[in-house]
Write a structure and sequence with these properties.
Blueprint lengths: L9 H4 E6 L2 E6 L10 H14 L7 E6 L4 E3 L24 H8 L1 H9 L5 E5 L2 E3 L1 H7 L3 E5 L3 E3 L13 H9 L1 H10 L2 E3 H7 L4 E3 L4 H13 L3 H14 L4 H15 L3 H11 L10
Helix pairs in contact: 2-4, 6-7, 10-11
């Protein structure tokens, strides 16, 4: 058995690198099937939030090591710390699970939705429960042809978490979302594509290269335009038409101040390809 000193560090369990203005966040916990312990979940959140305002990062990819599992959800084998309590108190007190959710998953998922840069999920294997929702929160989803999603909660007598009941109906509609959640059946990659749960399915050997191509195309694009577009599309899911007209008007005004818009107009007039800089 490995000693504690030989255990992977947080930086080894969730790796991070930046190449060609693209940040790569990789779940690397093969000993736990890429399940996320609280510290892994929080590290992904912190890494995503660290990209905001970083002009060197203009797109990101979230993926996982190996070919079998993207992320099966939370690592339920990990012990959870609890506040001190009297000897006669129950193991779990009313309010504790709610606070755990609000401080945990409900900080990770919004960080992805609200990130300044477009984020691609490169789903290399099974994504279940919170792992599925982690991928679906991303702006674009590419799946290996052997990968699958599973709304696994009902198999364990659980209710969906990690904002699954918010994102899934918006992608497939409430009737289909209930079907997927009630029956908790595997959703193979091709079916996920047909349902609108992913943008593209590729052979597993081509997943990283495809994600890299898309991410680097995004990283060469008008970064602030993408940021405002993402903001408008995400808000449109919960916004009335009048509010959307205001959002769109502000987005256009803000974008008019960017160097990339000026470059885009200039390149059109000069009949050349634009060279966007990200601001």
């Amino acid at each position: 058995m490995s000693s504690e000193s030989e255990q992977p560090t947080p930086e080894e369990q969730i790796t991070f690198r930046v190449e060609n203005n693209v940040a790569w966040i990789t779940i690397n916990r093969p000993d736990r099937g890429n399940a996320l312990a609280p510290e892994n979940r929080d590290r992904i959140r912190d890494l995503v939030e660290s990209m905001n305002g970083n002009l060197e990062i203009r797109a990101a990819v979230i993926t996982a090591a190996g070919e079998k599992l993207f992320c099966p959800g939370a690592d339920i084998s990990m012990d959870r710390e609890t506040a001190p309590r009297p000897p006669e108190a129950p193991e779990v007190s009313l309010g504790e699970p709610r606070r755990m959710m609000l401080r945990g998953q409900h900080t990770l998922m919004p960080s992805i939705l609200d990130a300044d840069v477009p984020i691609i999920a490169a789903v290399n294997g099974t994504a279940a429960g919170m792992g599925a929702h982690l991928a679906l929160m991303c702006d674009l989803v590419i799946m290996a042809d052997h990968a699958k999603f599973i709304e696994v909660f009902a198999r364990r007598g659980l209710v969906p978490d990690a904002l699954g009941a918010w994102i899934l109906p918006r992608l497939v509609g409430p009737l289909k979302a209930k079907e997927l959640m009630f029956f908790a059946e595997d959703i193979p990659a091709q079916q996920a594509l047909e349902l609108g749960l992913c943008n593209k399915v590729v052979p597993g050997a081509e997943l990283e290269a495809t994600a890299r191509e898309w991410a680097e195309r995004l990283a060469a694009g008008p970064t602030k335009s993408f940021m405002l577009t993402k903001w408008m599309v995400n808000r449109s899911l919960d916004t009335d038409r009048h509010t959307m007209t205001q959002d769109e008007s502000w987005a256009v005004e803000l974008n008019n101040t960017t160097a990339d818009m000026a470059e885009g107009i200039a390149s059109f007039r000069e009949r050349r390809e634009p060279e966007f800089r990200g601001w």
